[in-house]
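thought: fold this chain, then report.
action: predict
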Amino acid sequence: MKHAWLSPLALLRRDQSGSSAVEFAAVCIPLMFFLFGILEFGRAIWVEEALQNTVSKVSRCIGMKLANCASSGTYSSSLTATYAQTAAQSWGLTIPVSNITTSASTSCPGMSGSTSYAKVTISYPLTNVAAYLIPSLANQTVSAQACFPMAP
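observation:
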């Protein structure tokens, strides 16, 4: 009865029984956004590494005229696309053939000389949960490119 002279509104202002829940919500929500951001960023880096590994394998396959990319020692774009999809699948990525660009005799940026190069480019549409909250993160594409000298 110590506070009997206070109005109900004044008593409500002095009550601290729900303050822990409010403080938890104030800290938890930004922390969850931060953690999900770290996870999404890490996943994007992982996808980039998977694509780079895949294009390196495929460009080497074309350049060395290995059986996965060549038929009777001649470059085959259909075999190469299938090999690229298989290599990406080993990383857990499903890549449509339309996102794979291969070439068996081209020049590559930053590489000089008369040698022709095998060039592979793969693009992958990166979907993420954060795009539902931040629309500018939607429709992001990760791509990788690799070149390998063609064997004679």
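thought: worth noting. The beta strands are 70-71, 74-75, 100-106, 117-126, 140-149.
final: tokens above.
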